[in-house]
Amino acid sequence: MADVKEKLRIDKYLWSIRLFKTRSQAADACDNGKVKFLGNNIKASRTVNIGDVYDVKTEARRWMIKITGLLYTRVPYPEAIKNYEDVTPPEELDKVHFQASSFNTGKRLSKVGRPTKKQLRDIRGFMGESAEE
């Protein structure tokens, strides 16, 4: 564990509690105004203190987290959730509409989109075209 007097940056903290997959994503969120403290945008280098409440906007949802413990390294999720309290208002949670995970992968759903070879042969046969063309 790190020395108690060591300063902990907000980007490193958001990464360690698993709100972002990488530390650079957390830093980019800070730089792009997606992380706020008392309604003001903050820099990635801002020091985290216990009791602070941050408004964080991720791709999945909007969070309001209250810091209850400091994490200097990335830990498993069950341990990470012990170091912050989710104080997001219920009306914010209602606004979030989760989409199927297949939507975000960029891949087409199975059997949707372009016809298969068999379907093309059937279409050509129906239209009276020969399959050898």
Automatic annotation (TrEMBL):
GO MF annotations, alphabetized: RNA binding
Keywords, in A-Z order: RNA-binding
Pfam families according to UniProt: S4
PROSITE patterns to which the protein is assigned, alphabetical: S4 (PS50889)
InterPro entries: S4_RNA-bd, S4_RNA-bd_sf
Keyword Disulfide bond: no
Domain RNA-binding S4: 9-53
Protein name: RNA-binding S4 domain-containing protein
Species whose genome carries this gene: Limnovirga soli
